[in-house]
UniProtKB/TrEMBL annotation:
<dbReference type="GO" id="GO:0005506">
    <property type="term" value="F:iron ion binding"/>
</dbReference>
<keyword id="KW-0349">Heme</keyword>
<dbReference type="InterPro" id="IPR002401">
    <property type="entry name" value="Cyt_P450_E_grp-I"/>
</dbReference>
<keyword id="KW-0732">Signal</keyword>
<keyword id="KW-0560">Oxidoreductase</keyword>
<keyword id="KW-0503">Monooxygenase</keyword>
<protein>
    <recommendedName>
        <fullName>Cytochrome P450 71A1</fullName>
    </recommendedName>
</protein>
<dbReference type="InterPro" id="IPR001128">
    <property type="entry name" value="Cyt_P450"/>
</dbReference>
<keyword id="KW-0479">Metal-binding</keyword>
<dbReference type="Pfam" id="PF00067">
    <property type="entry name" value="p450"/>
</dbReference>
<feature type="binding site" description="axial binding residue">
    <location>
        <position position="405"/>
    </location>
    <ligand>
        <name>heme</name>
    </ligand>
</feature>
<dbReference type="GO" id="GO:0004497">
    <property type="term" value="F:monooxygenase activity"/>
</dbReference>
<dbReference type="InterPro" id="IPR017972">
    <property type="entry name" value="Cyt_P450_CS"/>
</dbReference>
<comment type="similarity">
    <text>Belongs to the cytochrome P450 family.</text>
</comment>
<dbReference type="GO" id="GO:0020037">
    <property type="term" value="F:heme binding"/>
</dbReference>
<dbReference type="GO" id="GO:0016705">
    <property type="term" value="F:oxidoreductase activity, acting on paired donors, with incorporation or reduction of molecular oxygen"/>
</dbReference>
<dbReference type="InterPro" id="IPR036396">
    <property type="entry name" value="Cyt_P450_sf"/>
</dbReference>
Length: 451
């Protein structure tokens, strides 16, 4: 007989849905898993799910049984915005995903490509520094969240689409993320699709989809226009996809649009959130801020700015970024996976077609893996070799295994360079009258369980 993982009692029909606080799902799951264990079974309406919250169980899902666990659950919203799973992030496991994933790994996010966009990152970071500096003489308060989001978005737009961002990009990204975070009743109660129609969520999804389609079509048409001059930044991601499409009939327009949507969804907010948390933690820990700042200024001297070639010398700053990602992973539940076959995790049976949530946020705070897990101590990474290189499943902000973030290098390069320059260029302080204890550590609401 199968030995299923333990979990909270279920109610008829809704299962455990009533136990999941709607925002900050990773935190409600963490609370539940403290009671039921690091491999926990849930029932979300009719959908069986397992939540994994320890380094050991994550290793079994992401390494030992990576292949059996590497599909994605299909949801009403992710199927629609990904052009029917034509993308990479939401595509189910299969030949389409394998082919497109290969394109990501050998063409779009190679070390060579990432390096070729170094001048773009350096230029955008300097523009942000200038924008802040223009206000610094009068000690004007800056809204750093906005600055960091537009920094990350401009880097994404220039490297992916060959131009800086405009409002349309921000709008479409936001709408896309919001609809992915919307709860669709039919995902959990197959017979109740009409409720989504009455609530208007179905119509909103269709509306977002049409806008996405037009937006992507326009980007593609602009790139195909023979009068278009390639930007000085070199071949962007869309150029590369269109070049590959010419020689490979298997790459359709839907696939290209799918990858563009992945970039809208995953490309900017992730790095921006990491940077915002890094600055927040440093403001709360002035002695660590000073140490990171002194390191940068000591290494770079009077050059006026930090370049990417300087970053390898900044050992402490790199630890600040890691420590931030440990406590505040931008994708706290990674992207949900789905089992394709029966697997055993920690001795428990997990049937096929089970949704698996890997709680990277809880794993980063697990007292069995970390000393003083709640404390912000970049020094801990100075003393250890823990990294995102597939060896340590207690630190997995980019996921692991076949589905690991293919643009990990891009994310890291952006965060390290931007943080180094922010510390090099300014002496940061809180707005008048604000104490470090006043800093809000509330997290923004999560993407929904469907995200
Ligand atoms: C700090 C920045 C970033 C973080 C923390 C991050 C994190 C993640 C995580 C946790 C996953 C899921 C991994 C899994 O399922 O095991 C993922 C997947 C993905 N990320 Fe990132 N990401 C970042 C930046 C980016 C950027 C800049 C891009 C593209 C421009 C990107 C594109 C993708 C794609 C396409 C996938 C889907 C991979 C697949 O399903 O095969 N990410 N990312």
């Amino acid at each position: 007989a199968w030995k299923l993982p333990p979990g909270p009692n279920t109610l008829p029909i809704i299962g455990n849905l009533h136990q999941l606080g709607h925002s900050r799902l990773h935190q409600s799951l963490w609370e539940l898993s403290k009671e039921h264990g690091p491999v926990m079974r849930l029932k979300l309406g009719h959908v069986p799910a397992v939540v994994v919250s320890s380094a050991g169980s994550a290793e079994q899902v992401l390494r030992t049984h990576d292949l059996e666990c590497c599909s994605r659950p299909r949801t009403i919203s992710n199927a629609k915005v990904s052009f029917g799973g034509s993308d990479v992030t939401f595509a189910p496991y299969g030949s389409h995903w394998r082919d497109l994933r290969k394109v990501c790994v050998v063409e779009l996010f190679t070390t060579k490509k990432t390096t070729s966009f170094r001048p773009v990152r350096e230029d955008e970071v300097q523009r942000t520094v200038e924008s802040i500096r223009s206000r610094a003489p009068n000690s004007v308060v800056v809204n750093l969240s906005e600055e960091l989001l537009s920094l990350a978005a401009n880097i994404t737009c220039r490297t992916a689409f060959g131009g800086r961002c405009h409002d349309g990009f921000h709008r479409i990204t936001k709408e896309c993320q919001e609809i992915l975070a919307t709860f669709f009743v039919a995902d959990y109660f197959a017979m109740l699709g009409w409720v989504d129609v009455i609530r208007g969520t179905q119509a909103r999804l269709q509306d977002v989809f049409l806008k996405l389609d037009v937006f992507c079509r326009r980007l593609i048409d602009d790139h195909l226009d023979p009068r278009r001059q390639q930007s000085d930044d070199g071949e962007d991601t869309l150029d590369a996809l269109l070049r590959l499409q010419k020689d490979d009939n298997n790459i359709t327009d839907a696939h290209i649009k799918g990858v563009l949507v992945d970039i809208f969804v995953a490309g900017s907010d992730t790095s921006a959130s990491g940077l915002e948390w890094a600055m927040t933690e440093l403001m709360r820990h002035p002695e660590k801020l000073r140490r990171a700042r002194d390191e940068v200024r000591g290494c770079v001297g009077r050059k006026g700015k930090v370049e990417e070639s300087d970053v390898h010398q900044l050992a402490y700053l790199k630890c600040v970024v890691k420590e931030t990602l440990r406590l505040h992973p931008p994708a706290p539940l990674l992207v949900p996976r789905e089992t394709m076959e029966h697997v055993k995790v920690d001795g428990y049976d997990v049937p096929p077609k089970t949704t698996i949530y890997v709680n990277a946020w809880a794993i980063g705070r697990d007292p069995n893996s970390w000393e003083r897990p709640e404390a912000f101590e970049p020094e801990r990474f100075m003393r250890s070799s823990v990294d995102t290189n597939g060896q340590d499943f207690k630190f997995i902000p980019f996921g692991e295994g076949r589905r690991i973030c293919p643009a990990k290098n891009v994310g890291m390069a952006t965060m390290e360079l931007a943080l180094a320059n922010l510390l090099y260029s300014f002496d940061w302080d809180l707005p008048d009258g604000m104490k470090k204890e006043d800093i809000s550590m509330d997290e923004a609401p999560d993407r929904s369980i469907t995200g």
